[in-house]
Amino acid sequence: MPSSQAMQVPDSPEWFSRASSVLGHVRKVNEDSFLDACEQGLWVVADGMGGHSRGDRASQEIIAQLQNFTINPADSRADLESLMKRLELANTFCRNEVVGEVMGSTVALLYVNGTEGFVMWAGDSRVYRYRDEELQQLTDDHSLVQELHRLGELTADEAETHPSSNVITRAVGVSDDLDVQVRQVALKPGDRFLLCSDGLFKDVLNSEMQTNMGLPSMEHALDSMVHLALKRGGTDNITAIVVQLSSEFGQNSEQSLTSE
Q1: What is the pTM of this model?
Q2: CB 59 within 8 A of CB 46
Q3: Where would you tag: which of 209, 228, 245, 258 has the fewest CB atoms within 10 A of its CB?
């Protein structure tokens, strides 16, 4: 993908979105890729694994598999199966493309069908929901430090600054059996969602993301967060998508589809 990109696609009457991906100030290649597809009710961020073989190609393959997805308004569960199969195809491609090396990428996606919403992810790219002036992380990082934190061996602050914070435990392309987590999420009129690679949240505090996600304009919210990450060094590629549900949107209960 180019070093700086913002994309707009036709908005649904019920949701709107804006996306941006920038190279940053340090990396020579943007290994992030994204899909901003309002007409499909699908938004995706993929972050190619730096230090491995062709991380940019891995993230691009994920998007290539998902961009032809067609929503079935009558069957969200069938759509989830379709999305999973497409991710598995990307995983197989990455496994077959290189020999003796790893070609991998994280993935985080938001899928909306009618009044149902789902997030799917592997790795440490994240999905957040902004509601009632509060920002909630909907995904759990699949990372070594997060596992240690869950086991009580690291505090939250220690996990944030741990030298192995970039070691992830799940991703597309790292093993023959792809392990993707799926969660159904509640939707309310006016909800905003943020999908992002770690290049954003490692340099922008949660409190700062919360403040910016509350700005009236989606474009301003997106640009402000990306600018802040760049101002603080831009040490990684930065990709983010802001999704806005309209005030007419319906509601749905939240539940987990897979064991945690």
Answers
A1: 0.88
A2: yes
A3: 258
